[in-house]
Amino acid sequence: MNIGPVEFVVIVSVSILAVAPLVLGVWAIVDAAKRPEAAWSAIGKSRATWIVLIAVFTIFCNLIGLVLSIVYLASIRPQLAAATT
User: How far is 36 from 48, CA to CA, in rounded Å?
Assistant: First the structure.
């Protein structure tokens, strides 16, 4: 089976879009797990809740998992970093 350059680009693009939510979800979960409990308490959020939400929705609904991962990495993570300093 021969594929042309357009088909190759489409296959690579679809593959990246399929893997991106998983990669971001794993990154967010690992980062959340490494943050100290004191930082989570300081910002009034629950580490367990965020980890479970990201994990469950990344597995069962990639789009929601992707959104949760982005929210964590863009919003919650900076708050945690500020709370640890």
Answer: 12
Report the candidate in 13, 34, 28 with the shortest Cα–Cα distance to residue 75. 28
Q: Which of 74, 79, 60 is nearest to 24 (CA)?
A: 74
The chain-wide mean pLDDT, for the chain, equals: 94
- The helix/strand count (H/E) of the chain reads as 5, 0
pLDDT (tens digit, 9 = 90+) per residue, 36-74? 999 999 999 999 999 999 999 999 988 899 999 999 999
CA–CA dist 29, 26 (Å, integer): 5
Residues whose CB falls within 8 Å of the CB of residue 50, separated by 6 or more in sequence, listed in order: 32, 68, 72, 76
Residue 17 pLDDT > 90: no
Closest CA to 77 of 36, 37, 28: 28
Give the 3-state secondary structure of residue 10: helix
